[in-house]
Amino acid sequence: QVQLVESGGGLVQAGGSLRLSCAASGRTFDSTPMAWFRQAPGKEREFVAVINWIGVFTYYADSVKGRFTISRDNAKNTLYLQMNSLKPEDTAVYYCAAQPRTDFRLREYNYWGQGTQVTVSS
Length: 122
What we know:
0% of the residues lie in helices and 52% in strands. The protein is mainly beta. Strands 2, 4, 5, 6, 9, 10 and 11 form a 7-stranded mixed beta sheet that branches. It is globular, with a radius of gyration of 13 Å. The model has no long low-confidence stretch (mean pLDDT 95).
């Protein structure tokens, strides 16, 4: 059974940092892009960042550019999201995703994690 399991979420003050992890099991994802999305209460799930299979290419939503860094360790089958200078508007459930079917900014991925809550207090 293929699973993506996020961890590292929590409560942090504005300006603080968190590092999210997404551990994959059941298969390897070292040949496919992986991404982070987030969903705030009452809003649609939105794209945050993507990384290609080898980790050379990355792309970020404008709202997180310069503050978040996506990375991956294929040997560990794990995806990361380093989040710095957090803002209250970053509060959301963060999801990792693997294997996009179309444009990587869309929510059309074959595999999703269950999400981890990030709450940023002002």
